[in-house]
């Protein structure tokens, strides 16, 4: 299979039907032990210090890892993607684009996916066949999510890791499904690990993945990862077609649509508070104003940049936030563990 990079979740069913192996460039970047090298490659090429670390990381991955073909989401994701693709085209990388239309009408979503299928020379019947095949991994991701918020046997980071991996199924659907099976079996054998605070993580997946371990060293646990769960398409079984499935995807569309799902999950999972993560220099940071006005629940907004670990100031803010929420619940502060 030919490899093709993606800048965020796209209809991978189309790519697999076209005999491509999708590679989520974000996952390659953030999981690398040399992730800073990717950023440095971009900055040496002229990317400004004040541009998003994810954009620079994606660029560096394409250059260093010899990615020859890439799909960039031009509408419904990062506002810098258009410029990124233009610079990558200068390097001889073959560029494709995809959009999640702001109109968020089923007709417009259908048109975009049909154009995408035409671009890769596949028929709807072939795409639907792949969509049905992927139901297995999507169902297993839902099981991991239930083991997180219902049974308290899966950590927030594990929940994050397995759901975010559905953006590309780690490049191999069969081996990824086996990994899900193995993890579910292992997780089911664990004892429950219940904490006093039930937290939601909302916003883009973090550069600072140590956030999960840091928070769960205290009397708190993440039982909801908003965007990661959307990458796994948890409502796939309510969609009759691939068009409906990607129409029902909250991440790229307006905040009112996103809020409806957020409120439902906050209630269902009995969330006590939210940590909202955004990336430095990203337009999504402004959304924090809107969310705090629309959600009647304590929210802590934190921001990451180029470092993949929490800084001391952010750790102090998280600790103070958790302390405050524990106080409101009447849980003694001694229950916080360093």
From TrEMBL:
Pfam families: HGD-D (PF06050). It comes from the Bacteria. Keywords: Iron, Iron-sulfur, Metal-binding. GO terms for molecular function: hydro-lyase activity; iron-sulfur cluster binding. Its cofactor is [4Fe-4S] cluster. Belongs to the FldB/FldC dehydratase alpha/beta subunit family. This is Benzoyl-CoA reductase/2-hydroxyglutaryl-CoA dehydratase subunit BcrC/BadD/HgdB.
